[in-house]
Structures are given as C-alpha cells and as structure tokens.
Amino acid sequence: MRACEIRDRRRLMDAALGRIACDLTVENVRFANMLTGEIYPAQVDVLDGAVVRVREAGESLPVPSHSVYDGGGRYLLPGLIDAHMHVESTMMIPQQLARAIVPWGTTTVCTDPHEIANVMGKRGVRFMLENAGLAALRQYILAPSCVPAAPGLESAGASFCAGDVGELLGQPGVIGVAEMMDYMGVVNGADRMAAIAEEGRGRGMFLQGHAPQLTGAALAAYRIGGPSSDHESRSAEEIREKLRNGMRINLRASSIVDALEELTRGLEGMGWLDQVSLCTDDVHAADLLAKGHLNAIVARLIHGGMNPMVAYKLCTYNAAREYGFDDLGAVAPGYLADFQLLDALDGRMPYAVFLRGKLAACQGRYVLQDQSSTCRVQPENTMRVCGIKGEEDFCIAVGDGRQTARVLVLGRTGRGLERSGEWVALPVRNGLVSLQDRPDLQFIAVVNRYGSGAKTVAVTKDFGLREGAVATTISHDSHNFTVVYRDAKSAFACLEKLRETGGGICAAREGRCIEALPLPLAGLMSLDACDVLAKKIDAVQSAMQSLCSKPFSLLDISVYALPAVPGLVITDKGIVDGDRQAFIASVS
Amino acid sequence: MRACEIRDRRRLMDAALGRIACDLTVENVRFANMLTGEIYPAQVDVLDGAVVRVREAGESLPVPSHSVYDGGGRYLLPGLIDAHMHVESTMMIPQQLARAIVPWGTTTVCTDPHEIANVMGKRGVRFMLENAGLAALRQYILAPSCVPAAPGLESAGASFCAGDVGELLGQPGVIGVAEMMDYMGVVNGADRMAAIAEEGRGRGMFLQGHAPQLTGAALAAYRIGGPSSDHESRSAEEIREKLRNGMRINLRASSIVDALEELTRGLEGMGWLDQVSLCTDDVHAADLLAKGHLNAIVARLIHGGMNPMVAYKLCTYNAAREYGFDDLGAVAPGYLADFQLLDALDGRMPYAVFLRGKLAACQGRYVLQDQSSTCRVQPENTMRVCGIKGEEDFCIAVGDGRQTARVLVLGRTGRGLERSGEWVALPVRNGLVSLQDRPDLQFIAVVNRYGSGAKTVAVTKDFGLREGAVATTISHDSHNFTVVYRDAKSAFACLEKLRETGGGICAAREGRCIEALPLPLAGLMSLDACDVLAKKIDAVQSAMQSLCSKPFSLLDISVYALPAVPGLVITDKGIVDGDRQAFIASVS
C-alpha cells in the first residue's frame, strides 16, 4: 500500500537524475536512517512532496534546488506516526488537531472515528475525512467496526452492519477496519463481527484489534478471528503474551490509561521489536499543549533506557509497516517527504517539521499556510433527547411505599476502568431513593440523546461530588448524555444547557449551570484551536472540581458508560454485566 | 496479503477454544519465536494446516489432538522462505524441486519463471504454476517483467507487453512483478518498463528489482521508478548504499554468483536488518544435494558471526514481510503451519520439516505422500532452429580474399560476468577465420531456437576448450542455442543432438556427440529427481571438462549470452555493448 500515489513519477526520476531542479534541499544534517539504524551526514532533496535523493554530505547537484534549508547539523528523521488514536478525544476537529500535533513532530495519524460514527454514523466519518483534508497532517481513517460498541446493551446514534463498514472501506483515505472492540463477539465467532472482519479481509485490509486482558485460548481465537494488533494491554505479561502470539502491539500512553513503564517491562529480553509501535488512543488537548504527542512517549521510552533510534523506529518505520505503507516511516528516494529536524534524539520538540516537503512547523509554531487556518464548519445540533420533562426524570422512584431500598452501588475495583457492584440499603423519601445521609454516594444517569427516550439512573461511589451536577455528552462509546449529581434539579439544568449548545460539558449547582464547554460538533468536538480549547476545558474542569471533595477528572465520567470493558457498566438501557454482556437489576 | 486463505476460520477458533480436537500437537520443543527473538519451551497445536495455538509447556488441552509429535526438545522455528529464485536454474521441474529442498527446511519459494517465459511465454508460466501445485512446497510466482530481457538486442520465444504481465498478475499464486532487470529502462523511464511497473503498482503488488552496480542518482531513479528490492549487489558498499536508500536486500548466494561474506560486511554497523532477506537466485541441483539450500546460507552467516536468531529471521519473518505475507514467516495462531525442528540453530539440515501442518521431511528424506511422487508431464519439443544446414553455419566467413581479419575477441574483465573486447588479427583460411594457431581462443555461436533463423558467431578467450564443442539451450535470458567450439563440425553435432532431445546440454568431439543431458521441458529442465539429475549433470560436466585445458563450468556458458549485464554481450542478433545497449561490429 502506498500512502499517496505520486502523481508524476517521471518528474521525480528526472530530478533524481539531475535533469530538473528539486523544490528543496535540506543540507547539513545528521541523517538518522530508520531503514538501517545508522546516523551519518547527508542532505535530502525533495520534489512534489516526495524524497528524490538522500545524498552524501558534500555531493553536489547538477541543477541546484529552488530552495536550500540549512539543517544546522541537526538530526533529520522521519515524521512520527500514531498507530491508533481517536481525534474526537482531543475535542478538536481534525483541522485543529493538525495545528496542535505537527509542531511535536507527528506527521501521520491513523484514526478511528468511532466516537463521531456512534453519534452521526457514516455522515460523521465523512465529515472527519473531509475536514482532515483541510490540513497537511496525514490523517488516515479506519472504518469503525463497533457502532454501537455493544449492540443491544446501549443505543448509539447509528448502527453499522458489515455492509456499512464495507462501504466506508471503499472510500479514499480509509485504510482498514478499526479496533474490533466487541472482542468477545470476535472470540465467539458472532455473525456481526465475523462479517465485518470478512469485509476487511476480502479487501486485503488491516484489521485492528482491541483485546483487553485476553489471554491463552481466547487470545488465540481472537487472533485467528482477524484482528492482528492491540493497544489495550495493562501489564508486562499481557504485552509479552500478545507479542509472542502474533499480535502487533501499539504501546499506549493516553490521557485516560497510561501504564507505559509497566508495558515496556514486557519487552525485556526480546531480540527485536518489529511488531511494536506507539499510540496515544485518547489524548486531551491540555496534555497535547503541555506534554506533547508521540514525542512525549518517545522521551519516556528513552528515559527508561530504550535505545533512542529504536524508540523513534517504533513510531516511524514500524508503524508504517503495521499498515503496509511502504512510502512512509523512512526518508529515502520515493518516500514521502515527511521529516523533522531535532537538536537531540531524546523525544524533545523538533526544531522544524516538514510535511509533504514543506516546512510545516518551526520551534513549536505551525507555519504552514494551508486551509487549516480557517474553520468553516457549520455544525448541526445532534442533541435529540426526548421524554425528559424535569428533575423528576433524574430520580430513582420506589413505588411500593418502602422506607428503604436495596440499591446496587457501582464502584471501581482498582483494576483500570473495571467496576463491581455492592448492594446497599438506602432510605426512600417521598417514594424516591435519597442520598441525603450518604455524602459518599452520587446518582448517575445516562440519557439517550438519539430520540429513543431511554435512560438509566443508578448510584455510584466513584465521584467525590458534594453538590450539584457534572454532565457530558462525551460518554464512550454511545455518547449519550451522562450526568453525575447530588441533586436532580442540577442534573436537569445540565441537560437543558447542553441541549442548547448541541452537547458539551457542564457543571451546575443548586439547579443552575455554573460553567459549560460547548462541543457543537456532534457533542464531541469544539471548533476552537488547541490553546483556546485547553483554557475552556480548564475552566469547566475547575467548575466541576469546585463541586467535588476529591480530585475529579472529566475523563472519569466520559468512560463511565463504556460497555467494552469487563465488570459492571451503565448505559442508557440499564446496568450491564460486561463479563456476561447482559443486563442486571440495580434496585430491589 | 495472506499466503493462503484459511477456509474455515470458525473451525480454527473452535479448536483454539478447546471445543474440537486439533489434527496435531508438536510438544516438547524449544520454541524459537521469530516475532520476538525469544526462545522458550512450548507446544504447538495445528488444525487444517494452520497454527491454532502455541501453548506453554505443560498446559493441557481440553480435547486432545488427534496426533502428538514429540519434538524431542529440539528447536521449533518457521520454515525458510527463499525471497528470489528461478526454479529453472535447478534444471528440475517444480514438483521435483519440492522433494529436493523441503528436507533442507525451505517451505516457501518466491520464484521468477523468467527462463521458461522467455522460451514458452505465458504457457510456460502456467505450466510452472500447475506443476508447483502437485507438491506441498509453497511456490509463489512473480510475473516475469523482461521477456525478452533486452528487447531488440536478442530474440526470445515470447515477448511480454505490460498487458501480458497484467494478465499474469491476475492469476492465483502470482504475487508481484519479477525482477525488473532492464534496469536502464527503468532508470530512464522507458515506456515498456514504466507500463509494467504501473501494472503491478495499480494492483498494490510487489515490484522486484535487479539493479547491479546502480549507485547514486541512477539508484534513486530506479527506486522511484518502482522496484523496491535487489539481489544483485556484489560488494559491501553496494549493499550498504542500497539499504540506506530504501531497497530491500536479498542477500544472495547462488551457484553462479556468490559474494556472501563480502555482502554481509556491508551490514556492519547497522542497528537492524529489517529490510534484509536471503535468496538463492540460480542454484544447481548438485549444490542442493551436497550443500543444502537456504540453510546453507544461514550456516555461513552464523559462521561469520551473525546472531543465529537474526540469521533465521532474515529468511523467515523478514522474507514474509517483504512480500506482505502476514501469515507466513512465524509460528503463531492464524499463521500457516510450516515449521521445522532443529537440533541446533546453526544452519544444519533440520531433523523434521512440517508443511501445511503435515510432516513433510524427516532426517533428509521427503516423506509427504503428495502428488510430487509421480511425474506426469508430457513436454513438447521447443527446439525450432531453422536455417542451419551444416558446419559452415558455424564459421566466420571473410569475403574479400584477405589473409587476416581483425576480430573482436571477447574476454572477461574479472568484474563478475562483465566482459570487454580486444581487437586481434587472426588468419583467414579458405575465406574463414581460423583459430588453428590460437589454442587459447574459441568460437562461440548463439543460434536462435524460436524460428527466426538469426545467429551470431564470434571469438572468445574465456573458455579453455582444446577441441570439440560444448553446447547448451540454457542460455540466459533468451535461452537460444549457445555453443563454444574449436571445430564447427562438433558444434553442428551438438545442435543436431539437442534438436532431437528438445534441448539440453551436450559435448561433442570430432563431429560426434560424446555426452548429452536432455532437458526436454523447454530445453531448460529435466523431469528427473534431484539425485538422478545431479549424476547426469556430473556426467555431461565431466565430458565437457575432458575437452578443456582449464576448469570448466557449464554455468559459464549459460550466462555468456546474458544481455542484462554491463560490458560486451553476445546474443543471437549480434554483439551488444551492454552499457550502451547497442550492437557493435565484431569483424573488420
């Protein structure tokens, strides 16, 4: 597979042979060759966005290039490739993402528009493709395989059958089937997942995996079922078993889950890491601003003792090969001219980044004059909540005049996102379960926002919320309206506010909204640039924190309704036992 | 790409989950994992020719496998993959090749049927595909790209346009475009090569290279033109430059050219060898019998100091990835069950070889009961020489009554196959150039055998032939009848004999054939098994040697008319200056 068909190959060959001038020569660099692991002095010639030659230092050209860039003796190496990320998790639209991550040296992202697909279906995927096209950053898309993630257990804004996935696979820019997160469906040969795998396999396309804690027999069945990669490992042992069994591993450090140092321990003793690449999965705008992108993972790997060339290889050559790109991930004749200049091979911000042969960023500033500077998106309001009239809809009614009710209180087990339940006797006042005497507990509600009218109200002990309500329409994977609250009036206020903004994040106290972050694009993304957005996120985060007695992250709530994890899960349709993938009662 | 579509994936998954029995478990092995470079105790379960699980030693199965093979504590590693070979060069047909090389641990060969294509065209390629199908050895074919190798400079039995190559690329078992040996055509953007490259590129298929001594600007142009691999390097510097510039390298040790130790010197200082694999290119039946196949290259690499696991990785995992096979080159769930058991990781003959999950060879014996045991081929006679009436056709006539003529005497330069020419005054007797007083020289003639009537007669100093004639229809790349001789009567006798046998190799003295090796399949291949064939080759080689004053190899003559090398070349159409790709006069 090629990342981009070179339009006029003969022109490049003529340039290589010195018959016509190149657009650009980057001279005076220490060339870090990701094909061989060597570093040596060289100069790089570029035409039409592709590499024409990598010449020895001092070798002259018969026809000088139109422009010459002095590399200043810096290291030149390929741009970085994120093997798996969800753009929506940055809360930025693709054109803004480009401006945020290119300065960190990332030139290609392989993305799963799973979130917008769950809200807006194929229209959402097409929006991501089109919007990505406005910026130079290479943004590939994998067709979301699990829309909804857990059919029957949650309601999303769309439902993809194998034919829908196939239709997306036929679109330019779509390079495979995205993480097959219904992993038990794959393992057990469920018809839907088998048919979706076949859509990809029949086209010779990449099938991406998602196999948390799968081991032994089930891991083997999952691998045979199709997916050949995974980014969900949490332990060294898990990484090691998966690599040994033929899964490619995307070492992940996301804003939600980050066990990077533990994971790299799983690589110890291996002779080579050909099947290892890096990914950021879900990464937060503030983290992108403050810490960086893939380069930050590279820095940590090097800090942990990994050979710097190997660390960079994981997110260049290896990532390209994972997808079968044979013109990305290295700098050589016929490769695309995505590269960076670095003062040191330590994961720092590059001095300069070249994308498609053009200077795209310098010293942290995006300098490319592409279409990403103007945002022309007119988002539609995707908030279609129905059947919710007022605060009474956020209460748990107990009908039979009892003074107490036994309620299943959800709580984290300490193993990642996994939750268990504990039956607790709670007082009933005026026919409604009351948490007045239990400041350690909160209500949580998931309200369908695609017109079904479904909702679930439950009790959790996972949030230190003292008063008011915090709500979001970023709620993996169906992105229904999800609210944690102490008082129902504030929960309803959040809903009212987010209906008005087309979704977003909101904090309310005493029945009034105190801060809101509008996310008008599918209730998932802002149109703002990364720095502006990060400030707004900070404001809403602070407002949410002011309601809480312990540290609160808005991501905690965003993954509370995620059905693709083991243990107990809440969705708009009820409380789900993730292991059995079945509903259970939460009040008795 | 997958080597072979698994027919019933659910059955394999059921077996992985322990719901049904596997065909085979190979237990008690030291598992050499080519995905991670680790060695650890394990056991391997197989069903329907694919790997179902690799279990830890001691872990039991819910349902026992139908058969259990005790690995005896040996190393288990994948079968070897030859990245580039011409089956015809072994002089065996594909079904016999399988019996010869599987016992050495080779389970996959990626072949270029360039020779038979030059003789029989697409019919020849189809024969190779069909005949390969009679044995378990995986024999993939790349569509010959240069039929003839040097259009206009030689006449072959067929001529492929881009459409013909495209037609072959559509056949099952064809995995790419074979070595694009008209390298100057590629570099200069010649229409034929550009169109052939496009046939492969348009299908996302692999383009194999052949770029002897290409360097700098020309190498870059060749790489951009399409081909991404090479096996023609002769020096450490050539290997290094090609790897650095994005060419995959097939380290070659063939029966004709072997600079393996020099080539591996070119890998020194590299951090990794991801783009390096192994190939045998042209290998002789006697060498296969005595020395082995890829394993012999592995042994030499290890002897030269390469880490044994890395040496095996080159011809397993790396070779598979070169072609984009993601189910070959390793042993893991979903991979095809081609593996071997070895007493030591030193390139020795394996104790046992499993192919498609079945024991195929044990202690050097091919034990598989497949269709390769019966040869049912009825070859047609492809010798269509015309216009040759007698010995006079093998003389150089000088028409104007001169006593001497200036003749261009061909001679090796010492740089591989490369030849230069030297103008020498030779006596003319009865109007014919005479070598009577020059025992150091010989005549050489190339006679078209596809009905064109063309022939070229010249003089060479490269053979120590004292008397008689040696002739062959294996004559790269057009495989015209090629004869080296001291007396024209013996040359004609060779022609008469090989017309009768449908081609082959022949030695004659005093106008009579003294030994002949019939090669009835396209004048290139015998139907014999390797051991029988090797004896016959030895006999004809001995007969040829008996005519010579210095060591003589029949391969020397087979590559004497090869136009894809620099320097001077002889073809049926005349003497060619390989550098300029133009004819030059040889008598003045």
Written account of the structure:
- The structure is a homodimer of 588-residue chains.
- Chain A is an alpha/beta fold and 588 residues long.
- Helix content of chain A is 26%, strand content 27%.
- In chain A, strands 1, 2, 3, 4, 5, 14, 15, 16 and 17 form a nine-stranded mixed beta sheet that branches. Chain A has a nine-stranded mixed beta sheet with strand order 20-19-18-22-21-24-23-25-26.
- The mean pLDDT of chain A is 94.
- Chain A is built from 16 helices and 29 strands.
- In chain A, β6, α2 and β7 form a beta-alpha-beta unit.
- In chain A, α12 (294-303) packs across α13 (308-322).
- The longest helix of chain A is centred in the C-terminal third of the chain and has 17 residues, at 530-546.
- Chain A is elongated, with a radius of gyration of 25 Å.
- The interface between A and B is large, with 62 and 62 residues.
